[in-house]
Structure formats: structure tokens, C-alpha cells
Amino acid sequence: MNMKEKANEAEHRQADKEEIAIRIDPELLEQIRHLTNDPSKVIEVAIRQWLRGETPRDDELTRSRVRIPIPPRGEWND
């Protein structure tokens, strides 16, 4: 595949996409821009992973409480 074919393929892929407007926290957008010059690609991949259920959620409501067992009396630093 030569450079012209690659350019045509990229244009074709981009033509198949819809353009939307979103409201996003400026600090979050800055973090995404720090990773890449194409924030839309990062957002698209994140949405695909979320829809497939691939990304484990890590917020307060989804964490299971970790219980540290306490040893019986007499076994702890007596």
C-alpha cells in the first residue's frame, strides 16, 4: 500500500464518522490533549470500551469493601 492509498483510506474512514459537540471539563480535555493531538480518537475508544463493558469501573459505588481480618486475641503483638 503506497502513501496515496493510505491517505485515501484515512479520508474514507473519516468520512464515515458523525461529528458531534460535547461539553467536557477543560481540565479533563487538557489531560487528553497531553496524550494525543486527536482527542476525538481517545474519546471514541473510551466509549467503545465502555459500551463493551471492557473497562472496570473504579468509583466509590462499585468497589467492594476490603475487610482485613483481625487475628484472635492473644495472637497479635502480645
Which structural traits does this protein have?
single chain; 78 residues; mainly alpha; 3 helices; 47% helix
What does this structure look like?
With 78 residues, the chain is an all-alpha fold. The protein has a domain at 21-54. It is 47% helix and 0% strand. The protein is built from 3 helices and no strands. It has helices spanning 3-15, 26-35, 39-52. The mean pLDDT is 76.
Q: Show unreliable segments.
A: none
Which percent band covers the strand fraction? under 5%
End-to-end Cα distance: 73 Å
What is the string of helix and strand elements? HHH
C-alpha Rg, in Å? Answer: 23 Å
Mean pLDDT over the full residue set: 76
The percent of residues in helical segments reads 40-55%
List the helices and strands and how they pair.
Blueprint lengths: L2 H13 L10 H10 L3 H14 L26
Summary of the model, kept short:
By secondary structure, the chain is mainly α. It contains three helices and no strands.
